[in-house]
Amino acid sequence: MTLADKISDGIKDAMRAKEKDKLEALRAVKAALLLEMSKSSDKELSEQVEMQVLMRLHKQRKESAAIYHEQNREDLAKDEEYQASVLEEFLPKQMSESEIAAVVDQIIAQTGASGMKDMGKVMGQASGKLAGKADGKLIADLVKQKLAAG
Predict the structure, then answer these.
(1) pTM value?
(2) What's the pLDDT at 104?
(3) Taking Cα atoms as reference points, which of 66, 64, 46, 54 lies closest to residue 26?
(4) Of 63, 66, 57, whose CA–CA distance to 25 is shortest?
(5) Is 77 helix (H, G, I), strand (E, B) or coil?
(6) Could you tell me if 88 and 55 are in contact, meaning their C-beta atoms sit under 8 angstroms apart?
(7) In the predicted model, what is the mean pLDDT of residues 98-103?
(8) CATH domain 97-149 topology
(9) From CA 62, how far away is CA 66, in angstroms rounded?
């Protein structure tokens, strides 16, 4: 079952349960997936592209919530956080910081990276290996920290 199918099923369930906020979040995902599909000539999106779209939407919700908290707009922040939590149901389980650090250590050992000049090489492999399972900013921070210390 593709992500688009899961989202469609979620929309139907939300409509039956009259969950307006959940329905709004799922419709936004479906619209983004349809928009992405219209950009390419393929009839279906690859699983990787679907995950990228979902992760982008999730990140936008988190960033918006943070901005609303800074501006003391708790009502709007709560809406964004709820939508982010709905999207999390469809994302793969996120890895912990220690698990990410272990993968980064392994990649550094494999590539023989010794300093900041090798960051691009390490980030390329780490981003590919951890796609969808970890936040890119966290990966970059850990790589910088490990290469600067090494």
Answers:
(1) 0.74
(2) 87
(3) 54
(4) 57
(5) helix
(6) no
(7) 88
(8) Arc Repressor Mutant, subunit A (1.10.10)
(9) 6
CA 142 to chain centre: 18
Question: From CA 93, how far away is CA 6, in angstroms rounded?
Answer: 16
Where do the domains of the chain lie?
3-88, 97-149
| Distances in whole angstroms, Cα of residue 21 to Cα of each of 24, 82, 107, 129 | 5, 8, 41, 33
What does the pLDDT read at residue 150?
64
Quick: pLDDT tens for 47-66. Answer: 888 888 898 999 899 999 99
| CATH code 1.10.1510.10 for 3-88 | yes
Please indicate whether the domains covering 3-88 and 97-149 agree at the CATH topology level. no
Sign for the pseudo-dihedral over CA of 111, 55, 94, 4: negative
Work out whether the CA dihedral 105, 109, 115, 118 comes out positive or negative. negative
Token pair recorded at residue 107: 């990649």
Of 11, 48, 13, 43, nearest to 28 (Cα)? 11
Q: Which two tokens stand for residue 127?
A: 């981003």
Determine how many CB atoms are found less than 10 A away from the CB of residue 34. Answer: 11
Half-sphere exposure (Cβ direction) of 29: Cα atoms closer than 13 Å: 33
**139, 130 contact by CB (below 8 A):** yes
Who has greater pLDDT, 41 or 143? 143
